[in-house]
Amino acid sequence: MVTLKQLAKELNVSISTVSKALNNSEEIGKETIKRVKELAELYNYKPNKVALSLKQNRTNTIGVIIPDILNHFLSKVLFGIEREASLHGYNIMTCISNESLEKEKESLQLLANGSVDGFILCVSEETQIKNEIEHFKQTIKQGLPIVMFDRVAHDVLCDKVIVDDFDATYRATKNLLDENRKQIAFMSNIDDLSVGKLRERGYNKAILESQDYKPLVLNIKKEDNAQDKIIAFMKKHKNIDAVISADSASGVIAINVATSLGLKVPKDISVIGFSSQSVSNHSIPRLTTIRQHAKEIGANAAQMLIKRLQNITGEPYDFKTKIVKTSLVKNGSTL
Amino acid sequence: MVTLKQLAKELNVSISTVSKALNNSEEIGKETIKRVKELAELYNYKPNKVALSLKQNRTNTIGVIIPDILNHFLSKVLFGIEREASLHGYNIMTCISNESLEKEKESLQLLANGSVDGFILCVSEETQIKNEIEHFKQTIKQGLPIVMFDRVAHDVLCDKVIVDDFDATYRATKNLLDENRKQIAFMSNIDDLSVGKLRERGYNKAILESQDYKPLVLNIKKEDNAQDKIIAFMKKHKNIDAVISADSASGVIAINVATSLGLKVPKDISVIGFSSQSVSNHSIPRLTTIRQHAKEIGANAAQMLIKRLQNITGEPYDFKTKIVKTSLVKNGSTL
DNA sequence: GTGAAAGCGCTAACAA
DNA sequence: TTGTTAGCGCTTTCAC
């Protein structure tokens, strides 16, 4: 990489002259600016980002810590973050916590040493179970702002972007009750997570309000094979006439299982699930879907962080929690 | 963030003493080392990474440029890269090219200014179609090594990690012929990509070798709805008794479509597709799958890059192309 | 055993 | 209009 020094030498001027010329400083003569720029162009000069970062005490880089990049929802959020960051001239450094508290702490520590200006993260499963928040607080105390999304630690003071999980399943369940469904099952492989719990509560509330019916819940563990579990469950409870899935897979699987058991979807049984467009294509009929607008969540998180980073005036302002509303996209798996 | 300067001041020693003490230099007295380390611990001192990078002319960061993070295969490779990099003390900066040549060039430019030590990338679709390679060559000339994976530019001299695409579909097709299938259809939504073409050629070769049968290909465009296309195709060609899918979705969809058309899988029709474990769960029976070992691809790419980065001895060595063999995982959708 | 000073590449206050 | 200098945080050579 060519440096200011080399340009200066070749042009027989000082380093600062070159620097100023490239930054269109008023101080420098037109002719000099031209000469400098031409040579810089020729050598394809680009200012060294590391040196700039050191000087300006600012890296224009956002640290993103994600529990699981194979999760379609999370990678979609990452997509949204990247796009928004890129738009504002920020890069992102991605770490994957693998749902582990230890890795999450490590990543936070590692990137907090000047590599990034702030963080966007989704709390890992282990962190939520153990309810640890010290590492977040410490990072914030060090002056690095955090924006949490989806799974958040309520006791940490920072910006947050969440989904209306409770409401989403409450409304979806109501919807099924309005279809005159009587035995609505709830399936989830995320009952350890805050969002999983909220979704289950929304379902429960709607069911209990109905007076006549009662909840029926299938919790799928990470080590289970989802398809086998759902087959067994549906064989056992033959009276199920509707399913709500809290995760992105079991909805589609439930449709396929129902079909293979000879049921007609949606005549005999309705299914609603959290999912994305691409996955909802994996069943016939297509899954009626609770869309979480993952990209918007990512974009919102990035905006909130960047706004805070660019608030150089110094005046701190209150932390916000933005709720991105889900929407119910009706496809063929409901009446 | 606390700096060496601050520690030095508080301890009434020089900055260099503190630096040496923290690095366990022989030059420094035991007692001093102890005092320094205690204070550093107390203040949770961590060396500033940006300063280190500037000094050492090395960032310990890998730039990753991926065409599409919502593609399950690609995000799995990313996972593999991240894990391997993390293991060796490297961070990754991720850019998403969105299959655009322009964005790919931009990302390369942006990160080449001292932000990263080298690149791992998968060539974007537009780049492959236009067959542009200048930006890669220039980056390499600047001294930043590149490792390409999956979709590679053959005319660029660099390390590569690829899949045995041709062989995979050749063998899979053979497999179906051995099952005595007569009309084997090939479905793809990636016929623009180098890997898509290779996969189609492998299929063609096997079919043509069989003498008796002829190829039948369905190309699905990005703007098409895959499910609708496949339904129409299978209704039109009722004699299809086997399907090979070159992308990760159409295999699963084909099973669901076949079932909905009253066919028994695998009795009446066999299906094989490129896919991952999680998606192969989205049909009943489960899809017989060509596994690409995405994580290994990522890990291999990271290893190759890191090896080159750490080859400080200077002697350049030949570029390698590593082929990660696919494997055929038999599930219920074949005999 | 400890400290001073140079230098990585850049910007900016100040001097000329 | 141009150049000198200091400094961002760190390592390392050389001097004391």
From TrEMBL, chains A, B:
PROSITE patterns: HTH_CROC1, HTH_LACI_2
Keyword terms of this UniProt record: DNA-binding, Transcription, Transcription regulation
SUPFAM superfamilies: lambda repressor-like DNA-binding domains (SSF47413), Periplasmic binding protein-like I (SSF53822)
InterPro entries attached to this UniProt entry: Cro/C1-type_HTH (IPR001387), HTH_LacI (IPR000843), Lambda_DNA-bd_dom_sf (IPR010982), Peripla_BP/Lac1_sug-bd_dom (IPR001761), Peripla_BP_I (IPR028082)
Residue ranges of domain HTH cro/C1-type in the record: 3-50
GTP-binding in keyword set: no
Coiled-coil regions, chain positions: none
Single GO term (MF): DNA binding
Signal peptide feature range: none
Domain HTH lacI-type: from-to ranges: 2-56
Protein name per UniProt: LacI family DNA-binding transcriptional regulator
Phylogenetic placement of the source organism: Bacteria, Pseudomonadati, Bacteroidota, Flavobacteriia, Flavobacteriales
